Amino acid sequence: MIPNDLRAFWMPFTANRQFKSAPRLLTGAKGMHYRSADGRNILDGTSGLWCVNAGHGRERITEAIRQQAGEMDYAPPFQMGHPKAFELATRVAGLLPEGFSNVFFTNSGSEAVETALKIAVAWHRARGEAGRYRLIGREKGYHGVNYGGISVGGIGPNRKSFGPLLTGVDHLRHTHDLDRNAFSRGLPEHGAELADDLERIVMLHDPSTIAAVIVEPMAGSAGVLLPPKGYLQRLREICDRYGILLIFDEVITGFGRLGAPFAAQRLGVIPDMVTMAKGLTNGAVPMGAVGVKAEIHDAFMTGPEHMIELFHGYTYSGHPLACAAGLATLDVYEEEGLLTRARELEEVWEDAIHALKGLPHVIDIRNFGLVGAIELEPMEGQPTKRAFSAFLKAWEKGLLIRTTGDIIALSPPLIISEAEIAHLFDMLAGVLRELD
Ligand SMILES: Cc1ncc(COP(=O)(O)O)c(C=O)c1O
After folding, report:
1. What are the strands of the beta sheet with 399-400, ordered from one edge?
2. Does residue 364's CB lie within 6 angstroms of at least one atom of ligand 1?
């Protein structure tokens, strides 16, 4: 089953030449493990790519997809509907914080972000404040790869090759502060005042020009950057003071990653819109969504009833296979208590990851929910190389980790056992001891 020609597939976010010279091919997956093409079991320390929260190959989800494919393959979502899209929207709205009433379906996290940004600007316009068009992101933020997302995003390499990006965008400072917060357990103590940066930006541009602020409640892709205690509360207060919408990008944190259905609930700060994807279908069929509060949705429901209220949508919004997968996924999450399981495992997880302190090159360890990060001292003049070499060594030992810059990020399926947590960190300690 191993392909003999790897040239045609231009792989995303991959060192293509390195990969094709020594391919790492996955051919199967069940529970906590992948199967590699050379017949090894690989412990999944990353839920695929933060998606597979219920573990791999869940029969209930597979069966729901199979049945739906036989019953109805596709239904147009424009001016037509199918029952499962309505059912899934209702279920997702029920998991979101109080006040959230409606869900707009997309096919990815990137599309969810574009959708949320467009709804934010259009909402102000619908209310007669068309002057509010500015979008505020944050340094080190990741909001997918489309033009809106990279414009509000704050990761240099994702932006620099792609021209002038959106106008009317500004960025808050990031909150990564090893000097004050290294080796914090849970949320870091220092940095709430960084939220006041929003006040500075508001004053610079005038509040009447600002539509929305978008942040990840916990930044994942930049290497697990946790919000300092009180930081998100302060952002919320400033947004309220100036009539600015607050969007939480929960593509990674949604569906139980931090021990509650959404980070908003775990962290006690309620935004106006939530973007999600990944865990929505347990990664089995691509799907994203935006949840909005009633006052946002309702502001569009004016004008003649035969008119389209929002000129936006995708051919595959609410695709029947994705909806079937989503409904079965939510059943599994709910029946197995997975949306809160990270909270139960958090202490064991925290102790296990912090036990790596003192190993060579480790300059920080962070954790929250079932997420962890180990930051390594970069090699002199060769940033990212040390972490990438950890990734390759882990793969050889039978562990899938994710690295970004010189940071190792961990986010295993929420079904992980305590014994598997111990095994994961055993393997990782072995990797760290072997690093140059
Ligand atoms: C916070 C956040 N937003 C958006 C995205 C983009 O999602 P996708 O890759 O499905 O487009 C990601 C992906 O990792 C993400 O972490």
Report:
1. 26-30, 33-36, 41-44, 399-400
2. no
